[in-house]
């Protein structure tokens, strides 16, 4: 049991170190995937489009760097900026969303990339605290399992 807990502890420790070391690659990959999701955005409600809409609604942002990122997409040429970027959903018409100058007044102008990254970084202390707490419980479990094993082997000869 102690060996199993030690193995799990090491796996979690390695995952935490790898996540910390490669955090810049994670940011780069997230930005490129968000750009790709914008490029492939469509109305058929696939998972990527739903994820983009959810991020934009939840964080009140639009595009990757700003709302003008949508101008380089195929979706913009057909329907303009998506409804999920609107500050007030009932106030956005398709004509407004096709005109970048009018859209600037009706959509969120901040990009989603920096908001997602700042939200993640602000929550990292909570994640680190929870991880530290779990690691402490695992270490206590490892120590107690070793003590129990030692107690059993020491008392083995007395029972006979």
UniProtKB/TrEMBL annotation:
CDD domains: TM4SF2_6_like_LEL. It comes from Manacus vitellinus. Residues 1-19 form the signal peptide. It is a multi-pass membrane protein. This is Tetraspanin-7. May be involved in cell proliferation and cell motility. Keywords: Glycoprotein, Membrane, Signal, Transmembrane, Transmembrane helix. The chain crosses the membrane at residues 126-152. It holds the Pfam family Tetraspanin. GO terms for cellular component: plasma membrane. It is found in: Membrane. The keyword Ubl conjugation does not apply. It comes from the Eukaryota.
């Amino acid at each position: 049991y102690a060996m199993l807990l030690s193995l799990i502890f090491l796996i979690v420790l390695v995952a935490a170190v790898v996540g910390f070391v490669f955090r810049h690659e994670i940011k780069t990959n997230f930005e490129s995937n968000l750009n790709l999701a914008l490029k492939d955005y469509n109305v058929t409600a696939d998972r990527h489009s739903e994820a983009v809409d959810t991020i934009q609604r939840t964080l009140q942002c639009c595009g990757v760097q700003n709302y003008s990122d949508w101008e380089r997409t195929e979706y913009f040429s057909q329907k303009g900026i998506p409804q999920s970027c609107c500050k007030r959903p009932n106030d956005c018409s398709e004509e407004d969303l096709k005109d970048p100058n009018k859209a600037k007044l009706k959509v969120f102008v901040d990009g989603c990339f920096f908001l997602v990254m700042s939200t993640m970084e602000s929550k990292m202390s909570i994640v680190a605290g929870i991880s530290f707490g779990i690691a402490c419980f695992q270490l206590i479990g490892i120590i107690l399992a070793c003590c129990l094993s030692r107690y059993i082997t020491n008392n083995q000869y007395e029972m006979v």
